[in-house]
Design goal:
With about 220 residues, chain A is mainly alpha-helical. Chain A contains 9 helices and 2 strands. The radius of gyration of chain A is 27 Å and the shape is elongated. Chain B has one domain: Winged helix-like DNA-binding domain superfamily/Winged helix DNA-binding domain (Arc Repressor Mutant, subunit A, Orthogonal Bundle). At the A-B interface, α2 of A face α3 and α4 of B.
Chain lengths: ~220, ~120
Protein backbone atom coordinates (compact mmCIF):
# COMPACT_ATOMS: atom_id res chain seq x y z
CA UNK A 1 0.00 0.00 0.00
CA UNK A 2 1.38 3.44 -0.81
CA UNK A 3 2.32 5.88 1.90
CA UNK A 4 -0.42 8.41 1.13
CA UNK A 5 -3.12 5.72 1.20
CA UNK A 6 -1.84 4.57 4.58
CA UNK A 7 -1.86 8.13 5.86
CA UNK A 8 -5.41 8.74 4.62
CA UNK A 9 -6.55 5.56 6.37
CA UNK A 10 -5.00 6.84 9.60
CA UNK A 11 -6.75 10.19 9.26
CA UNK A 12 -10.12 8.49 8.91
CA UNK A 13 -9.46 5.64 11.34
CA UNK A 14 -11.93 6.91 13.94
CA UNK A 15 -14.77 7.60 11.52
CA UNK A 16 -17.70 5.32 10.91
CA UNK A 17 -17.63 4.04 7.34
CA UNK A 18 -20.72 5.71 5.94
CA UNK A 19 -21.06 6.41 2.22
CA UNK A 20 -20.48 10.11 2.90
CA UNK A 21 -17.27 9.45 4.80
CA UNK A 22 -16.04 7.06 2.09
CA UNK A 23 -16.59 9.76 -0.53
CA UNK A 24 -14.79 12.36 1.55
CA UNK A 25 -11.94 9.93 2.12
CA UNK A 26 -11.59 9.26 -1.61
CA UNK A 27 -11.60 12.97 -2.29
CA UNK A 28 -8.97 13.69 0.37
CA UNK A 29 -6.83 10.82 -0.87
CA UNK A 30 -6.86 11.95 -4.50
CA UNK A 31 -6.01 15.52 -3.48
CA UNK A 32 -3.14 14.46 -1.22
CA UNK A 33 -1.81 12.29 -4.02
CA UNK A 34 -2.05 15.19 -6.48
CA UNK A 35 -0.16 17.39 -4.04
CA UNK A 36 2.58 14.83 -3.55
CA UNK A 37 2.98 14.42 -7.31
CA UNK A 38 3.05 18.18 -7.79
CA UNK A 39 5.79 18.56 -5.17
CA UNK A 40 7.83 15.83 -6.84
CA UNK A 41 7.40 17.63 -10.17
CA UNK A 42 8.73 20.78 -8.47
CA UNK A 43 11.91 18.91 -7.62
CA UNK A 44 11.32 17.54 -4.13
CA UNK A 45 12.42 14.00 -3.39
CA UNK A 46 9.64 11.51 -2.73
CA UNK A 47 10.16 11.35 1.07
CA UNK A 48 10.25 15.17 1.25
CA UNK A 49 7.12 15.43 -0.86
CA UNK A 50 5.31 12.91 1.36
CA UNK A 51 6.38 14.71 4.54
CA UNK A 52 5.23 18.08 3.19
CA UNK A 53 1.93 16.61 2.03
CA UNK A 54 1.25 15.15 5.47
CA UNK A 55 2.20 18.44 7.16
CA UNK A 56 -0.39 20.35 5.18
CA UNK A 57 -3.20 18.12 6.38
CA UNK A 58 -2.76 16.83 9.89
CA UNK A 59 -6.35 16.22 10.95
CA UNK A 60 -9.84 15.85 9.53
CA UNK A 61 -11.57 17.13 12.69
CA UNK A 62 -12.44 20.40 11.03
CA UNK A 63 -14.07 18.91 7.96
CA UNK A 64 -16.29 16.26 9.54
CA UNK A 65 -19.96 17.19 9.32
CA UNK A 66 -21.43 18.14 12.68
CA UNK A 67 -18.04 18.60 14.33
CA UNK A 68 -17.75 21.63 16.52
CA UNK A 69 -14.79 23.11 18.34
CA UNK A 70 -16.01 23.03 21.93
CA UNK A 71 -14.89 23.94 25.42
CA UNK A 72 -15.05 20.24 26.20
CA UNK A 73 -14.73 20.39 30.00
CA UNK A 74 -17.24 23.21 30.32
CA UNK A 75 -19.58 21.13 28.19
CA UNK A 76 -19.12 18.12 30.48
CA UNK A 77 -19.64 20.24 33.58
CA UNK A 78 -22.81 21.79 32.12
CA UNK A 79 -24.17 18.34 31.23
CA UNK A 80 -23.45 17.09 34.75
CA UNK A 81 -25.13 20.17 36.19
CA UNK A 82 -28.25 19.37 34.19
CA UNK A 83 -28.10 15.73 35.28
CA UNK A 84 -27.70 16.86 38.88
CA UNK A 85 -30.73 19.13 38.62
CA UNK A 86 -32.82 16.22 37.34
CA UNK A 87 -31.23 14.02 40.00
CA UNK A 88 -32.58 16.36 42.68
CA UNK A 89 -36.01 16.26 41.03
CA UNK A 90 -35.83 12.45 40.97
CA UNK A 91 -35.01 12.37 44.66
CA UNK A 92 -37.91 14.69 45.46
CA UNK A 93 -40.23 12.58 43.33
CA UNK A 94 -39.15 9.54 45.34
CA UNK A 95 -40.27 11.09 48.64
CA UNK A 96 -43.95 10.06 48.22
CA UNK A 97 -42.86 6.48 47.53
CA UNK A 98 -41.24 6.39 50.96
CA UNK A 99 -44.71 6.73 52.46
CA UNK A 100 -45.67 3.63 50.52
CA UNK A 101 -42.79 1.74 52.11
CA UNK A 102 -40.37 1.96 49.19
CA UNK A 103 -37.34 2.81 51.29
CA UNK A 104 -34.77 1.14 48.95
CA UNK A 105 -35.97 3.29 46.05
CA UNK A 106 -35.76 6.41 48.17
CA UNK A 107 -32.19 5.58 49.20
CA UNK A 108 -31.22 4.65 45.66
CA UNK A 109 -32.32 8.03 44.32
CA UNK A 110 -30.45 9.72 47.14
CA UNK A 111 -27.26 7.88 46.22
CA UNK A 112 -27.74 8.79 42.53
CA UNK A 113 -28.23 12.44 43.46
CA UNK A 114 -25.16 12.46 45.71
CA UNK A 115 -23.08 10.72 43.02
CA UNK A 116 -24.09 13.30 40.43
CA UNK A 117 -23.31 16.09 42.86
CA UNK A 118 -19.80 14.77 43.45
CA UNK A 119 -19.21 14.24 39.71
CA UNK A 120 -20.37 17.77 39.02
CA UNK A 121 -18.08 19.30 41.63
CA UNK A 122 -15.15 17.29 40.32
CA UNK A 123 -15.87 18.32 36.73
CA UNK A 124 -15.61 21.93 37.86
CA UNK A 125 -12.04 21.24 39.00
CA UNK A 126 -10.87 20.30 35.50
CA UNK A 127 -9.27 22.78 33.13
CA UNK A 128 -12.22 24.84 31.92
CA UNK A 129 -10.34 26.14 28.89
CA UNK A 130 -9.66 22.78 27.33
CA UNK A 131 -10.98 22.53 23.80
CA UNK A 132 -11.79 19.57 21.58
CA UNK A 133 -13.87 18.69 18.56
CA UNK A 134 -17.22 17.19 19.52
CA UNK A 135 -19.87 16.03 17.12
CA UNK A 136 -23.38 17.47 17.39
CA UNK A 137 -24.88 14.95 14.99
CA UNK A 138 -23.64 12.07 17.08
CA UNK A 139 -25.13 13.67 20.18
CA UNK A 140 -28.52 13.77 18.49
CA UNK A 141 -28.20 10.06 17.79
CA UNK A 142 -27.43 9.53 21.48
CA UNK A 143 -30.59 11.45 22.34
CA UNK A 144 -32.71 9.31 20.02
CA UNK A 145 -31.18 6.14 21.41
CA UNK A 146 -31.80 7.27 25.00
CA UNK A 147 -35.51 7.74 24.31
CA UNK A 148 -35.71 4.43 22.50
CA UNK A 149 -34.08 2.56 25.38
CA UNK A 150 -36.21 4.33 27.95
CA UNK A 151 -39.41 3.64 25.99
CA UNK A 152 -38.57 -0.05 25.79
CA UNK A 153 -37.59 -0.18 29.44
CA UNK A 154 -40.82 1.45 30.59
CA UNK A 155 -42.99 -0.70 28.34
CA UNK A 156 -41.36 -3.86 29.67
CA UNK A 157 -41.69 -2.67 33.29
CA UNK A 158 -45.34 -1.75 32.88
CA UNK A 159 -46.13 -5.03 31.14
CA UNK A 160 -44.34 -7.07 33.81
CA UNK A 161 -46.00 -5.28 36.70
CA UNK A 162 -49.42 -5.61 35.09
CA UNK A 163 -48.81 -9.31 34.45
CA UNK A 164 -47.67 -9.95 38.02
CA UNK A 165 -50.53 -8.03 39.61
CA UNK A 166 -53.42 -8.82 37.32
CA UNK A 167 -52.25 -11.84 35.36
CA UNK A 168 -54.57 -14.20 37.19
CA UNK A 169 -57.53 -11.81 36.95
CA UNK A 170 -57.09 -11.64 33.19
CA UNK A 171 -56.47 -15.37 32.94
CA UNK A 172 -59.59 -16.35 34.84
CA UNK A 173 -61.65 -13.44 33.58
CA UNK A 174 -62.19 -12.04 37.06
CA UNK A 175 -62.90 -8.34 37.29
CA UNK A 176 -60.15 -6.12 38.69
CA UNK A 177 -61.26 -4.41 41.86
CA UNK A 178 -59.48 -1.69 43.73
CA UNK A 179 -60.82 -1.37 47.23
CA UNK A 180 -59.83 2.19 48.06
CA UNK A 181 -57.41 5.08 47.70
CA UNK A 182 -54.67 3.35 49.70
CA UNK A 183 -54.79 0.23 47.60
CA UNK A 184 -54.84 2.36 44.50
CA UNK A 185 -51.73 4.20 45.69
CA UNK A 186 -49.93 0.99 46.56
CA UNK A 187 -50.53 -0.23 43.01
CA UNK A 188 -49.79 3.09 41.33
CA UNK A 189 -46.42 3.37 43.05
CA UNK A 190 -45.21 0.34 41.07
CA UNK A 191 -45.88 2.20 37.84
CA UNK A 192 -44.71 5.49 39.26
CA UNK A 193 -41.18 4.36 40.12
CA UNK A 194 -40.13 3.21 36.62
CA UNK A 195 -41.88 6.29 35.17
CA UNK A 196 -39.57 8.63 37.09
CA UNK A 197 -36.60 7.28 35.12
CA UNK A 198 -38.00 9.35 32.26
CA UNK A 199 -35.97 12.19 33.74
CA UNK A 200 -32.83 10.64 32.30
CA UNK A 201 -33.78 10.92 28.59
CA UNK A 202 -35.25 14.35 29.35
CA UNK A 203 -31.88 15.45 30.74
CA UNK A 204 -30.00 13.94 27.80
CA UNK A 205 -32.31 15.78 25.41
CA UNK A 206 -30.81 19.07 26.48
CA UNK A 207 -27.24 17.99 25.70
CA UNK A 208 -27.24 19.11 22.04
CA UNK A 209 -28.32 22.57 23.15
CA UNK A 210 -25.61 22.62 25.83
CA UNK A 211 -23.08 21.65 23.16
CA UNK A 212 -24.11 24.58 20.99
CA UNK A 213 -23.75 26.93 23.96
CA UNK A 214 -20.18 25.80 24.54
CA UNK A 215 -19.00 26.35 21.00
CA UNK A 216 -15.70 28.09 20.58
CA UNK A 217 -14.94 30.26 17.59
CA UNK A 218 -12.74 28.36 15.23
CA UNK A 219 -10.02 30.82 14.33
CA UNK A 220 -8.33 28.40 11.95
CA UNK A 221 -11.32 27.64 9.87
CA UNK B 1 8.55 32.73 -3.92
CA UNK B 2 7.11 35.87 -2.37
CA UNK B 3 6.92 36.28 1.39
CA UNK B 4 3.86 34.58 2.82
CA UNK B 5 1.47 37.12 4.28
CA UNK B 6 1.11 37.40 8.03
CA UNK B 7 -1.78 36.13 10.11
CA UNK B 8 -3.69 39.40 10.19
CA UNK B 9 -3.92 39.76 6.43
CA UNK B 10 -4.85 36.11 6.29
CA UNK B 11 -7.73 36.88 8.67
CA UNK B 12 -8.94 39.58 6.33
CA UNK B 13 -8.93 37.16 3.41
CA UNK B 14 -10.64 34.33 5.27
CA UNK B 15 -14.06 35.92 5.04
CA UNK B 16 -13.78 35.84 1.25
CA UNK B 17 -12.69 32.24 0.72
CA UNK B 18 -16.11 31.17 -0.54
CA UNK B 19 -16.11 33.97 -3.11
CA UNK B 20 -12.54 33.14 -4.12
CA UNK B 21 -13.46 29.50 -4.71
CA UNK B 22 -16.51 30.55 -6.71
CA UNK B 23 -14.22 32.69 -8.84
CA UNK B 24 -11.88 29.73 -9.50
CA UNK B 25 -14.81 27.53 -10.49
CA UNK B 26 -16.20 30.34 -12.63
CA UNK B 27 -13.03 29.97 -14.70
CA UNK B 28 -13.71 26.25 -15.13
CA UNK B 29 -14.54 23.01 -13.29
CA UNK B 30 -11.79 21.95 -10.98
CA UNK B 31 -10.82 19.56 -8.16
CA UNK B 32 -9.51 20.24 -4.66
CA UNK B 33 -5.77 20.43 -5.01
CA UNK B 34 -5.92 22.31 -8.31
CA UNK B 35 -8.25 24.86 -6.70
CA UNK B 36 -5.62 25.54 -4.03
CA UNK B 37 -2.90 25.80 -6.70
CA UNK B 38 -4.99 28.07 -8.83
CA UNK B 39 -5.64 30.43 -5.89
CA UNK B 40 -1.94 30.43 -5.07
CA UNK B 41 -1.09 31.30 -8.68
CA UNK B 42 -3.74 34.01 -8.96
CA UNK B 43 -2.31 35.62 -5.80
CA UNK B 44 1.25 35.46 -7.16
CA UNK B 45 2.07 32.88 -4.47
CA UNK B 46 1.17 35.36 -1.74
CA UNK B 47 -1.82 33.45 -0.44
CA UNK B 48 -2.09 29.75 0.14
CA UNK B 49 -5.45 28.29 1.10
CA UNK B 50 -5.17 25.64 3.81
CA UNK B 51 -6.59 22.24 2.94
CA UNK B 52 -9.04 21.96 5.86
CA UNK B 53 -10.44 25.39 4.93
CA UNK B 54 -10.86 24.21 1.36
CA UNK B 55 -13.02 21.25 2.34
CA UNK B 56 -15.11 23.25 4.81
CA UNK B 57 -15.74 25.88 2.18
CA UNK B 58 -16.55 23.36 -0.58
CA UNK B 59 -19.01 21.53 1.68
CA UNK B 60 -20.67 24.81 2.63
CA UNK B 61 -20.95 25.97 -0.98
CA UNK B 62 -22.33 22.59 -1.99
CA UNK B 63 -24.93 22.73 0.77
CA UNK B 64 -26.01 26.17 -0.40
CA UNK B 65 -26.24 24.76 -3.95
CA UNK B 66 -23.81 27.35 -5.28
CA UNK B 67 -21.63 24.53 -6.61
CA UNK B 68 -22.03 20.80 -7.12
CA UNK B 69 -19.49 18.00 -7.10
CA UNK B 70 -19.14 15.08 -9.50
CA UNK B 71 -16.66 12.26 -9.79
CA UNK B 72 -14.13 12.30 -12.58
CA UNK B 73 -12.91 9.11 -14.18
CA UNK B 74 -10.91 6.70 -12.08
CA UNK B 75 -7.20 7.09 -12.62
CA UNK B 76 -3.94 6.22 -10.88
CA UNK B 77 -4.68 9.03 -8.48
CA UNK B 78 -7.92 7.39 -7.38
CA UNK B 79 -11.37 8.98 -7.80
CA UNK B 80 -11.08 12.72 -8.29
CA UNK B 81 -13.97 14.92 -7.26
CA UNK B 82 -14.56 17.90 -9.50
CA UNK B 83 -16.74 20.89 -8.74
CA UNK B 84 -18.95 22.92 -11.03
CA UNK B 85 -20.42 26.33 -10.30
CA UNK B 86 -24.22 26.55 -10.57
CA UNK B 87 -26.26 29.47 -11.85
CA UNK B 88 -27.00 30.46 -8.29
CA UNK B 89 -23.25 30.31 -7.68
CA UNK B 90 -22.58 32.68 -10.60
CA UNK B 91 -25.16 35.10 -9.23
CA UNK B 92 -23.63 34.91 -5.75
CA UNK B 93 -20.15 35.51 -7.18
CA UNK B 94 -21.43 38.55 -9.01
CA UNK B 95 -23.05 40.09 -5.95
CA UNK B 96 -20.13 39.15 -3.66
CA UNK B 97 -17.77 41.04 -5.96
CA UNK B 98 -20.12 44.04 -5.88
CA UNK B 99 -20.24 43.86 -2.07
CA UNK B 100 -16.46 43.69 -1.92
CA UNK B 101 -16.02 46.72 -4.17
CA UNK B 102 -18.41 48.73 -2.02
CA UNK B 103 -16.66 47.72 1.21
CA UNK B 104 -13.28 48.45 -0.33
CA UNK B 105 -14.41 51.90 -1.48
CA UNK B 106 -15.82 52.75 1.95
CA UNK B 107 -12.78 51.52 3.87
CA UNK B 108 -10.42 53.28 1.49
CA UNK B 109 -12.39 56.50 1.87
CA UNK B 110 -12.11 56.28 5.66
CA UNK B 111 -8.56 55.02 6.08
CA UNK B 112 -6.79 56.81 3.27
CA UNK B 113 -8.48 60.20 3.72
CA UNK B 114 -6.02 63.09 3.42
CA UNK B 115 -3.19 60.65 3.05
CA UNK B 116 -1.90 61.35 6.59
CA UNK B 117 -1.85 57.70 7.55
CA UNK B 118 -0.13 56.61 4.38
CA UNK B 119 3.02 54.85 5.16
Amino acid sequence: MDEIRKYTDELFAKQRQTAKIRDLKDEVYSNLLAKKQDLIDQGFSEPEAIAKTKDGFSSIDRIIEGNQLTYSNRFKADCLQTLLLYGVILWMLSIPTMVMGMMPFFFLTFVIMAGLGISYLRSKQSNQDEIAFLNGNRLKTVRRTAWLIWGTFFAVCAATITAVMYGSNLWFGRPISIAGPYEFASIAVWYYMPATTMLLPIAISSFPKILAENERDDKNE
Amino acid sequence: MAMPIDGISSDLIRGHIDTIILKVLHDGDNYGYEIIKSISQKSNQEYELKEPSLYTSLKRLEKERLIYGYWGEESQGGRRKYYHITEAGEAELHSAVARWLTAQRIINAILLQGGETNG
